User: What shape does this take?
Amino acid sequence: MDKRDYAPLLAELSEAYARHAPASRALNDRAQQHLVDGGSHALRLVEPFPPRITAARGAWLEDEDGHRLLDFWQGHMANILGHNPQVVTSELSRAFGEGFGLQTGFTDRLQVETAEILCQQTGADRMRFTTSGTLATMYAILLARAYTGRTLVMKVGGGWHGAQPWALKGISYYPGAIAGFQRVESDGVPTSVTDKVIVSGFNDADLLRAHFRQFGDQLACFIVEPFIGVGGFQAATVEYLRAARELSEQHGVLLVFDEVIAGFRFRAGNVAAIYGVQPDLATYGKIIGGGMPVAAVAGRKEVMDLAGRTAEPRVKFSGGTYSAHPASLLAAKTLMTYLVEHEDEVYPRLAELGERLRQTVVDAFGKEGILVRCTGQPAGVLPGSSMFMMHFPYREDTAFERPEDWFNPSLYDMTLSHRIIDLALLLEDVITLHSHGAVSMAHTEKDIEVLGEACRRAAHRIKSHL
Assistant: This one.
């Protein structure tokens, strides 16, 4: 497929957005003086500049220009109840008013109670808190390498496990000399680490078996998302995860599920339980924090105990100054308790809204003659999904099965899905990032209609350039 020339369209959209949001633009110019690229998380720095947010509640934001923005990004999909849900903020407000919440550096009852909920809802024996999904996956890999005494780590192409050394290979798809998902994504990572990372294929049980035959006796762990995030919002098949469990056991390899996105997104607990596959270790984050920075590693006692003070070998899983921060754990306990108590109403509602959203997006672009495919739909044993990611194939009959398909620039329009749609929707006061997001319990049927109309207007604006 010939590459489309989007330079005129990007210039048109950028100029229109600069007129639409002058206050955010001015603050972005100011931010450039001291912040690299104007911010501290690259994904959020939409070009030509991101909206600068002043308030957030439920499904909606306000920016420096006074616009009300309908948000489907929802804190990296962490806010399952929407922004600043009262069930959480009221507890934080009460605690701060009573002199509790910022006494960093001590232990308290909350650690015990929050850990009990997480272990009960995920089937884990032991756990330890940290502050980010990146740290959680790093510690899980350290534990696996220490427990097995092996060095190799296996992941899947398109799998994102944070910006840590063993995870910075095989994230983005690159055609050409270094084909597929084999490239290291960052300078500064030693090749002595990245050479020890094997990249397999998501939902490709045959390739997984081949990799286990070749590397099984050297592998410390296989880390995989049961619902892949950055790699395209696709659920793993039951057959694939059961093959991973069987092969791991056969070869003495630890199976690690990265549930930073999936945990508490499909049920009030881990998605592994829906599949009937129990990993040796699992990582959690995002939703479990109730909007605050909380992450965790949880799993088998004999593996987790390697983080203990008397363990030999011992993994230095200290977690950081703000690990198990009391305000964060209060938010986590409150949110997880709410999801457990309201599971029967929360997850069916999210599934219903997710299905409606995906169909609305497809219909809206279709009315303007633009072909879009929406991943995030439930598959196999998953009862429903609140997630969505838009992909724009060049042809109706384009393959649609795996990350290697929808991130192949010869099959799918990468510029359209990763730059243009976000900016075109911003002009309609709707936020997605890299064409993906999720619904929350704060979203309504009316909000889905607003998104559909925004997609239709965005499609109308760009279709003459395709």
